[in-house]
UniProtKB/TrEMBL annotation:
Bias kind Polar residues: ranges: 150-169
Protein name (record): Rhamnogalacturonase A/B/Epimerase-like pectate lyase domain-containing protein
Biased amino acid composition, Low complexity: 170-189
InterPro entries on file: Pectin_lyas_fold (IPR012334), Pectin_lyase_fold/virulence (IPR011050), RHGA/B-epi-like_pectate_lyase (IPR024535)
Domain Rhamnogalacturonase A/B/Epimerase-like pectate lyase: 3-92
Taxonomy, superkingdom: Eukaryota
Region Disordered: start-end pairs: 138-201
Length: 201
């Protein structure tokens, strides 16, 4: 299922085989979908695949998905009030193209795998387009909250600080020059780090 630019999808349920190796519930391949809200996704290899410029995923419930959200590109993805129940990987932001800013708000992960996999761009040169913010996450189980694209744990299940959000800046501020729709920055001279609290379930 796809969603057109400047449109939204709300109040539906998608059922797929729970042992699927190839089903995808919603595929947002390009454009600017405004919002996907009040959606329940059961089963499937991928619940939502996103390559939109910006989109708000609000009140999405995932159950028995192998990967809940696969981010293959884009600028900003806001995941708000999501529930991950008995799933594999939560948000895959480390296997496709640069996923832009990933913001996870007021969400719950129960009996599931890592909440997020991401590419740590803090040591990359040139342009970068990958920041992460986690706020008010309820998480249970022994699986880590965040792993990098190599599978190494960056935020364990027993920690109370969110994954660090990295961005490269000039001492005088970011450049206003844009290339390929991404902000151009100087080579790494300083790194801003921000962290949000995680509420343990």
């Amino acid at each position: 299922m796809g969603i057109a630019q400047a449109c939204q999808l709300t109040n539906i349920k998608i059922n797929m085989p729970t042992n699927s190796k190839g089903h995808t519930g919603i595929a947002l391949d390009q454009g600017s979908t405004t919002a996907v809200t009040d959606v329940t996704i059961v089963g499937g290899a991928v619940g939502i695949r996103n390559w939109n410029q910006q989109v708000n995923f609000k009140s999405i419930s995932f159950s028995k998905c192998t990967t809940r959200i696969f981010l293959t590109g884009g600028f900003v993805a806001v995941i708000q009030n999501a529930t991950f129940d008995t799933c594999g990987l939560g948000i895959d932001g480390g296997s496709g193209g640069p996923p832009g800013s990933i913001i996870i708000l007021d969400s719950t992960s129960m009996d599931s795998g890592p909440v997020i996999k991401y590419h740590d761009s803090s040591n990359d040169s040139g342009d970068r387009n990958n920041q992460i913010v986690i706020e008010n996450l309820s998480h249970d189980g022994g699986n880590p909250i965040a792993v990098d694209s190599n599978g190494d744990t960056k935020l364990g299940s027993d920690q109370t600080v969110a994954p660090t959000s990295f961005s490269t800046v000039r001492p005088s501020g970011p450049s206003s020059t844009a290339r390929s729709a991404r902000a151009t920055t100087a080579p790494p001279r300083s790194v801003e780090r921000t962290a949000s609290r995680i509420k343990r379930g």
